[in-house]
Amino acid sequence: MAATKTRSRGGAKNARPASRTIDDLLADFGTTMPRKEAPAPTPPAEKLFPHTVKSSGVRRMGHGWSPTMPPLAGYQMTSEETPVLWPLISGDGLPPWGAEMGYDVLSGGKFYCDPMGWVLDDSIPVTNPNIFIFGKPGRGKSATVKAFMIRMIKFGYRSLVLGDVKDEYEDLANFLGVTPFRIGPGLPGRINPLDLGPLGADWEKQTAEEQEKRATVIFNRWLMLIRGLVASQGVVFSPTEERVINKVLRHLTGWSAGASRLKPVTIPLVWAALDSPTKDLVTDCRYESEQAFFNGTRPLRDALGALCEGSLQGMFDTESTFEPDWRKPIQTLSLRSLHETGNKVAVGIALMCLNSWGQGMREAASAGDRRIVLRDEAWLQTRLSLEAVEALDANLRLSRTEGDIQLVTYHKPSDPLSAGDQGSQAAQIAKDLLNLSDVRILMGQDESVADELGRLMGLSEMQQGVITNWAMQEKGRALWMVGDQRYKVQTLLTPLEKRLTYTNEAIDPGV
């Protein structure tokens, strides 16, 4: 009988032995496989809105259910009409080039400032690069100016401060490695407002046509300054005085005699020429005699004499001792010692002299020499006379052709109107100065000037509220007017800029 295979209950008789794991194999050699712990299970995230509600609401008492949606109101208008109903609405903003000043509060984007670039961009309503900045003291006006100067350095701009009345830009100049040039009673610094400037260089090498062109520019600049200086003393500068000064300047420089090189001229030399006139000068001025010349020019001589012997003696009456290094990032001329005398008229006259000197220094600037010209406390100059206002007006009008950014600071919009009596020609020209700047920075102001802001700047009630409410809550806030566009801007400063722009040392006991 054939044998039969039997199976045990536990399995087949010839069953394959159980397989060994990697752990078993490694255990034979006395080692183990490292294991990675399994991560703990993450609980499901809580939903912010666990339930959704249909647009028509929940059909239950008090749950806002509506069987139909209300129709939307529709309006059709142009982009020029939209800002009338929705002022300060966030638009596309300005191009991202120039100094990064802070951020646009309405759009949340960065805000850049480049006045010269704006002039070159036809899509931006800016035709001149001048900047007027208004702000109540303590609202961050000077900090905004300094931040703009610092951040424009990398774009090739250098700064010229024509009269730092309170030495607010001294720390900035020292940080940039420049020592401020100081002018004041008893100080050795001198500035000759009748400097020939770069136009007097290489005079003998120029053609007769070029010499005539340069002489016209130089004499016109000098004439404008002397007109303003004489008028600041309350003397009327009529066409007769203008003819006399023109003849004196041409006699002193040697231009009338055909000299190959113009001689230097100072205000005391002009005064001396009037006090001791030559026969040729008397004849050229069409006076019958020397005595007639004396009688006709007495007010003019007295006005110039007061400048040479008065509070400005020793500051603007000799050759300049300041030779600016235009390669430096900043040049600043300090008037603090004169300001501390309390003579605001003298400070205004000094600012006018510095402005004339600065204009002469920039008359032959190269195409790549970009400059920010700061005219701080300009109201001290414009309140002197009509001629002083006209001098500033001329400087602002030349900014586009000279390639400079003229930056003028005021406390409030009515400051320019302090020139002359209300309704006078001086007041009207000073008011028109605002039209020579398409970029205006309006920082925090008291509500008492709200109506004044609206009248002079053409601001709406909402825009006035931005200046008198929002901008007063924190330093550096301002309403920027770029052409017909409006921006709510918060200026941001780095820690270094905060230190360089701090102007409360005199009243802060912790400094």
From TrEMBL:
Q: Which Gene3D superfamilies match?
A: P-loop containing nucleotide triphosphate hydrolases
| Record region (Disordered) | 1-50
Regions of compositional bias (Basic residues) in chain numbering:
1-10
Q: Which UniProt keywords apply?
A: Plasmid
- What is this protein called in UniProt? ATP-binding protein
